[in-house]
Design brief:
The chain has eight helices and 19 strands. The protein is of the alpha/beta class.
Length: about 350
């Protein structure tokens, strides 16, 4: 993925310098002119330069003479995802992302990513993966490769595909290897930070150690999943239901090979011939309002299911998001082998 700073051009640059940068950007040829602090001043394309030359500017002139002063942009943490979708569907392919001070903090390219979700992502990667031994004796499970890259990298890349660029990774067992492999995320144009568990904190307890989320919504996921979940649709459904917590659920059908009787006081009142029942299990992926995280105990063992129970007891809204796509929890050797096979067949 291209470093967003390749799209930035200092305000005193010449048109010749702009042409060189535009040439390097090729089919992504658009520049955003910024001052010394990276405050957005305008945009510049080949067309702007062409019109400027026709009107008599010289390639030695500074770009300020021909920039477009009011380019479209996205505000960091923009909650109105529909506005972003409108830009995307309106063929605004490359857009700068501004912070509250109008400084450019990212440039998104809808040729490369699918959306720009206003969430922080937390990836839980501290487990020992004991069921996958001996593979995990010297390698943390998140770094076991499915295909040509680690399990966790599949998750990270999938989330980044939907424009998530603020990541937290909870680590403990062999966490140094995970930190060494992914670093600060800059090679993927994301911001990646680590939360170290001094003791086991369950499947969500480590989140209580994070004090500076960038957004009002947090997506929590296990690191050992393989899925083609549409995170944009998940987020839109979450907002539509105005839930405090949404859980990706995996439907399982149970076929009963006999007639099932309904009885009352020993009397048969109804029966169903060989019925099929659908149950929903926890998929290990959650969207959470940041305010709901106030119910987490401080740096103590706590599971995501504990938070679900707490929120329900407090009258908060907890909803299910049934997944219609692919999902696999890579917990056992047979799951790991299945993941290798499925990767060749499933569209991710």
């Amino acid at each position: 993925m291209r470093n967003f700073r390749e799209h930035l051009l200092p305000t005193q640059s010449t048109i010749r310098e702009a042409l060189i940068k535009l040439q390097d950007l090729a089919k992504d040829a658009i520049l955003f002119v910024v001052d010394k602090d990276d405050k957005l001043l305008g945009s510049l394309t080949d067309g702007d330069i062409r019109r400027g030359l026709i009107n008599g500017v010289e390639v030695s002139d500074i770009v300020n003479k021909i920039i477009q002063p009011n380019p479209k942009f996205i505000r960091k943490g923009e909650k109105n995802l529909e506005k972003i979708i409108e830009y995307r569907d309106g063929n605004y392919r490359i857009l700068p992302v501004l912070d509250k001070n109008d400084l450019v903090v990212n440039v998104i390219n809808f040729r490369i990513i699918r959306s720009y979700l206003p969430v922080d992502a937390v990836i839980m990667a501290g487990g020992k993966g004991t069921r996958l031994r001996p593979l995990t004796e010297n390698t943390p499970k998140p770094l076991l490769k499915v295909g040509d890259k680690p399990i966790m990298e599949h998750n990270l890349d999938r989330l980044a595909l939907y424009g998530i660029d603020d990541f937290w990774v909870s680590v403990k067992y062999l966490g140094e290897q995970i930190e060494d492999y992914f670093g600060d995320g800059s090679n993927k144009s994301i911001n990646l930070r680590y939360v170290w568990e001094d003791k086991a904190l369950g499947t969500i307890g480590a989140v209580s150690k994070i004090k500076d989320f960038s957004h009002d919504y947090v997506l929590l996921t296990n690191s050992d999943l393989l899925t083609n979940l549409d995170y944009e649709h998940f987020f839109l459904d979450f907002k539509k239901t105005d839930a405090d917590l949404a859980i990706v659920t995996i439907p399982y059908q149970v076929n009963i090979p006999y007639a099932v009787l309904e009885t009352s006081n020993g009397h048969v009142v109804n029966f169903k011939e060989k019925p099929t029942y659908t149950y929903y299990s926890n998929g290990g992926i959650y969207l959470i309002k940041k305010t709901a995280l106030n119910y987490l105990p401080k740096e103590d063992f706590f599971n995501a299911t504990d938070l679900m129970e707490k929120l329900i007891a407090e009258g908060k809204k907890v909803v299910s998001y049934p997944l219609s796509g692919y999902w696999l929890d890579i917990g056992k050797h047979e799951d790991f082998e299945k993941a290798q096979r499925d990767l060749q067949q499933i569209k991710f």
